[in-house]
Specification:
- It contains 11 helices and 30 strands.
- About 25% of the residues lie in helices and about 35% in strands.
- The strands form 7 sheets. Strands 20-21-22-29-24-27 form a 6-stranded antiparallel beta sheet, with no helix packed on it.
- β25 (about 425-430) and β26 form a beta hairpin.
- It has 3 domains: about 5-280, Spore Coat Polysaccharide Biosynthesis Protein SpsA, Chain A; about 290-365, no CATH class; about 375-480, Jelly Rolls (Sandwich).
- By secondary structure, it is an alpha/beta fold.
- α3 (about 85-105) crosses α6 (about 205-215), α6 packs across α7 and α6 packs across α9 (about 250-260).
């Protein structure tokens, strides 16, 4: 019986703003580690299963997920949710896709799904894999398994799992409990019978669909119909958007796990305790908790270019995240300081749960810093908006070798391209030609044009836009190798 990892990478949280933005959320960030959180999640599977994972994400983040997996040599089925509808429908889509994958491979046993979030930190991979293996025999028999985090404090930000009768190294789940107040959380810790609900599950695909159909037939029927007519685009599999859009929004906990645990057969859900340095990195203070610190309790994260650095003089118990500049602190304590190219956050560690309010205010006031970084990633490379004015904008554009921007035109802006390094193949109206270092070309308003990197190294160029409107939505695409036309 195969084990197929299902990595849920569709979130767009704002609790780690300004580093995490809706267009580039935390699962795609390194957060001071060598790999991004998505890459860490995929790497954690090595030695546990050799089956390629199913990665669930969305249209906006699909190229980020594909590129980061490609960088680590990881193949995957990338399943695109047309709209976000929480974990119960997402896992149903994955279960249906997993059964199809097994059928296509001419297998006859329903696969076991290892449901993981792409944005968790687990420091002890061996302990994680041992807990998964402990669940496997019960799950193969049709039970539902979950990983319960051994609590380290009376946290009020997590749901809890109440453990009952012991089953070898497992426990029968008696109850899933909502996030408690501080006194209730302390009573849970004192009892020794409770674990944090990690949101990680081990479930047979057919059993999940069976119980979902029983408890939430509305979700089941929509997901089954949406997956009956999928479309493939490059590395991506899309469910039917019109059908899936009417699906109810519900978590797997409410839809399946809670009613199953409280049903007549109380042994249907089992929990394996996990003590492995787990964190969902749900806030800047949570990141400070798990980060490496100096003797003064300071954690310095390098999350941008090579020039980012920090000087911490008379500073204690603080987190400083640097990008491309020197950040210096003097005579402060218990602060979170996050420096990016276009925004700086300074917050007390006790107030970081309210960071999302800042992102909400930016959105309400019509700003863009909640959604985009100054540097924006595209499937062909990236661009950095280095300067702008009322009728002009300057970008530094990087195009990957072999990559090609869409064939397009603009109604409101002209563009001047100057190649800094590499070679560009330019289509400008009816003409196609090469532009090399220190050469330039001009694209008039309304001219159909295209940019391609035919070389073996990255193409670096400066683009100067001028016109009455410079928004990214002033793009008419005629042809696009990434399916965006």
């Amino acid at each position: 019986m195969s084990m197929i990892p299902v990595i849920m990478a569709g979130g767009s949280g704002t609790r780690l703003w300004p580093l995490s933005r809706t267009s580039f959320p935390k699962q795609f960030l390194t957060l001071g580690f060598e790999q991004t959180m998505l890459q860490q999640t995929a790497a954690r599977l090595k030695g546990l299963t050799d089956v390629a994972p199913i990665v669930i994400t969305n249209e906006e983040h699909r190229f980020l997920a594909a590129e980061q997996l490609r960088q680590m040599g990881q193949s995957a089925t990338i399943l695109l949710e047309p709209v976000g509808r929480n974990t119960a429908p997402a896992i149903a889509l994955a279960a249906l896709q997993a059964l199809k994958n097994v059928q296509d491979a001419q297998g006859d046993e329903p696969p076991v799904l290892l449901i993981l979030a792409a944005d968790h930190v687990i420091k002890d991979t061996s302990a994680f894999q041992a807990a998964v293996k402990a669940l496997l025999p019960d799950v193969q028999q049709g039970r539902f398994g979950t990983l319960g985090i051994v609590p380290t404090e009376a946290a009020t930000g997590y749901g809890y799992i109440r453990a009952g009768l012991a089953r070898n190294n497992l426990f029968v789940v008696e109850e899933f409990v909502e996030k408690p107040d501080s006194d209730t959380a302390q009573s849970y810790i004192d009892s020794g019978n409770y674990y944090w609900n990690s949101g990680m599950f081990l479930i047979r695909a057919d059993r999940y669909l069976e119980e979902l159909e029983k408890f939430r037939p509305d979700i089941y029927s929509v997901c089954k119909s949406a997956m009956a007519d999928t479309t493939s685009d490059l590395d991506f599999v899309r469910a039917d958007k019109d059908i899936f859009s009417v699906c109810p929004d519900e978590s797997i906990d409410y839809a399946v796990m809670e009613p199953l645990a409280s049903g007549q057969d109380s042994s249907q859900v089992v929990v394996a305790p996990l003590d492995a340095g787990w964190s969902d990195v749900g806030s800047w203070s949570a990141l400070w908790d798990i980060a490496d610190k100096c003797a003064d309790g300071n954690a310095v994260l390098h999350t941008g270019g090579d020039e980012g650095s920090a000087i911490t003089e008379d500073t204690v118990n603080s987190l400083i995240s640097t990008s491309d500049r020197l950040v210096a602190t003097l005579g402060v304590q218990d602060l979170i300081i996050v420096d990016t190219k276009d925004a700086v956050l300074i917050a007390h560690r006790d107030k970081v749960q309210d960071v999302k309010k800042i992102a909400a205010q930016i959105k309400a006031e019509g700003g863009s810093q909640h959604q985009f970084h100054r540097e924006v990633y595209r499937p062909w490379g990236r661009y950095d908006s280095v300067d702008n004015g009322q009728r002009y904008q300057v970008k530094r554009i990087t195009v990957k070798p072999g990559a090609k921007l869409s064939v397009q035109m603009h109604h409101h802006r002209a563009e001047h391209w100057i190649v800094v390094s590499g070679t560009a193949r330019v289509t400008n109206g009816d003409d196609t030609f090469l532009v090399t270092e220190n050469e330039s070309t001009y694209i008039p308003i309304g001219q159909v044009h295209c940019l391609e990197n035919p070389g073996k190294v990255e193409l670096e160029m400066i683009e100067v836009q001028s016109g009455s409107y410079l928004g990214e939505d002033d793009i008419v695409r005629f042809e696009d190798k990434y399916g965006r036309a």
